[in-house]
Write a structure and sequence with these properties.
Blueprint (H helix, E strand, L loop, with lengths): L1 E5 L2 E4 L4 E8 L7 E7 L6 E6 L6 E3 L7 E6 L4 E6 L8 E8 L12 E4 L3 E6 L1
Parallel strand pairs: 2-11
Antiparallel strand pairs: 1-3, 3-8, 4-5, 4-9, 5-6, 7-8, 9-10, 9-11
């Protein structure tokens, strides 16, 4: 199983950025697919996730209304569209796959597979 996150970069506050997560060895529609992030000196935190059905999405309060998760079953990919970026969004972003139940979708320990992370830096 491999999850390859990409699309990070250096942007200015207020800009948008789309992260991609390419999956191999698993089918994204069979897993809850999540995004997490880790800022320097901080613990990894939940950003958002999309459930197996593809119709349910979940977001951390800090990104709700600014970030959108989507999935392309044909390409076996998951996306994180980020808008109105803030300096506090600066972090390494990770995609992950969970075989767990919906109630654990925001819980890091529920995720079985992790990508390598992509750096997002937002300048003020």
């Amino acid at each position: 199983v491999q999850l390859q996150a990409s699309g990070g970069g250096l942007v200015q506050a207020g800009d948008s950025l789309r992260l991609s997560c390419a999956a191999s060895g698993l089918t994204v529609r069979s897993f809850n697919m999540g995004w997490f992030r880790q800022a320097p000196g901080k613990e990894r935190e939940f950003v958002g996730a999309i459930g197996r059905s593809g119709s349910s999405t979940y977001y951390a309060d800090s990104v709700k209304g600014r970030f959108t998760i989507s999935r392309d079953n044909a390409k076996n990919m998951v996306y994180l569209q980020m808008g109105s970026l803030k300096p506090e969004d600066t972090a390494v972003y990770y995609c992950a796959a969970s075989a767990g139940i919906r109630s654990t979708i925001s819980t890091m320990n529920a995720y079985n597979y992790w990508g390598q992370g992509t750096q997002v830096t937002v300048s003020s």
